[in-house]
Write a structure and sequence with these properties.
Blueprint (H helix, E strand, L loop, with lengths): L1 H18 L1 E5 L10 E6 L5 E5 L3 E5 L4 E4 L10 E6 L5 E5 L2 E5 L4 E4 L10 E6 L5 E5 L2 E5 L4 E4 L10 E6 L5 E5 L4 E4 L4 E4 L5 E6 L5 E5 L3 E4 L4 E4 L10 E6 L5 E5 L4 E4 L4 E4 L10 E6 L5 E5 L2 E6 L14 E4 L6 E6 L7 E5 L5 E6 L4 E5 L6 E7 L5 E6 L1
Length: 390
């Protein structure tokens, strides 16, 4: 029995590795410093990592290039990177702001008009204005002049730790000790329901997500919803939020890795799954749906379950329907597929159902599965189909 269980463990492990993969990078690979505070991806697919103490590392998929204060960066303690429409990098540090066009550096500090040199967040609005969240209010820069907003103008607190722009162009400022302020360009609205904010992220449906030092909150414009470890979140201190093409939310926590939320349930990833470090500082999704995660111990790249599988289409000898489904998925096959074995895999690569196709018309009960995306795969022929469980 032990031998059989061990063999099964190896088989499941192999399937898991095929379904998803982790790749990690640290100073041994070329990263300037393991403490990665920010990640940005440019139009060429280059990844830019802002490190706390080592400057910036650029990774083109093969080669690493590091930029520090010696090259022109205003400070090597980088907290945030944002890329504008022209491809310029705007870099917030503990010592001010740097603009980098790929060749030239331009630095801005309080001497130039910045409200404070400690910069936590950067956003760029539809008109190209740069907004900087600082330790002494908010600074707006239109490439010519500066405008400073503090509590004297309506900001709820001057220690501004996060910033975001929602789909209707409202600016949201999260503070450390005063709540949240929304600014529509004219009027300020303050919210006390959320405080000690690390990160703000609007989703495609207009909800605003807040990662705080004590919990995760969602605001739909009227109602507030709280999420904690009691709901399945890996840890209550949320530092990072990223949203993928399937509207899954990826929440990076301070001590327990990453939680993926599909709207119904949390799936947690940590160093035991392949993540390089459990203190997550930042995350971003690339154009291929891969998740880049910056931690205190380096960077991890998570490649999720294959996205090139067929959806709701007859290919070769199999038809899968309905899709999405609630309770039952029907599998229609040609005679040549009779007797084929199948498996259904969840989005972290685990087999949740398996069986054999014995009829030309088969029914598979999925009512016991949690809502989400799964893959139906035949072991003979290797055909794969995405199934969405509602």
């Amino acid at each position: 029995m032990k031998t059989q269980l061990l063999l099964l463990s190896f088989i499941l492990s192999g399937i898991f590795m095929k379904a998803q993969s982790w790749v990690s990078y640290d100073v041994n690979n070329g990263l300037a410093n393991n403490n990665v505070q920010s990640i940005a991806i440019d139009s060429y697919g280059n990844k830019w990592f802002g490190t706390y103490g080592g400057g910036i590392s650029k990774f083109d998929g093969t080669n690493w290039t590091t930029y520090t204060a010696i090259d022109g960066l205003v400070c090597d303690f980088v907290r945030v990177i944002k890329i504008d429409a022209l491809g310029n990098l705007w870099i917030g540090t503990d010592g001010g702001i740097s603009k980098f066009d790929g060749l030239n550096w331009t630095n801005y500090t309080t001497f130039n008009g910045l409200s404070n040199n400690l910069v936590y967040g950067i956003e760029i609005d539809a008109e190209g204005n740069k907004w900087f969240a600082t330790n002494m209010g908010v600074s707006k820069f239109n490439d010519v002049s500066w405008t400073i907003y503090t509590t004297a103008f309506g900001l709820v607190n001057n220690i501004v730790t996060s910033i975001a722009i929602d789909p209707t162009n409202n600016l949201w400022f999260g503070t450390w000790g005063g709540g949240v302020s929304k600014f529509n360009g004219t009027n300020w609205t303050s919210y006390s329901q959320v405080n000690y904010v690390n990160v703000i992220k609007p989703d495609a449906l207009g909800n605003i997500w807040f990662g705080t030092a004590t919990d995760l909150k969602k605001f739909d414009g009227i109602n507030w919803t709280n999420f904690t470890t009691s709901n399945g979140l890996a840890a209550n201190n949320v530092n990072a939020i990223a949203i993928d093409q399937n509207n899954n939310k990826w929440f990076g926590t301070n001590v327990a890795g990453v939680s993926k939320f599909n709207g119904n349930a949390f799936i947690n990833f940590n160093t035991s799954n392949g993540l390089i470090g459990n203190q997550v500082n930042c995350s971003v999704i690339d154009n291929n749906g891969n998740v880049w995660i910056g931690t205190l111990d380096g960077v991890s790249l998570y490649t999720p379950i294959e996205t090139t599988i067929l959806e709701n289409k007859k290919a070769n000898t199999i038809l899968v329907f309905p899709n999405p489904a609630t309770d039952v998925v029907k599998i229609n096959v040609d005679d040549e597929m009779l007797g084929a074995n199948y498996k259904i895999i969840n989005d972290i690569g685990r087999i949740v159902l398996s069986g054999q196709i014995n009829f030309t018309e088969n029914e598979i009960k999925i009512d016991g599965l949690v809502p989400g995306v799964y893959v139906f795969e035949t072991l003979e022929g290797g055909q794969k189909y995405k199934i969405v469980k509602q």
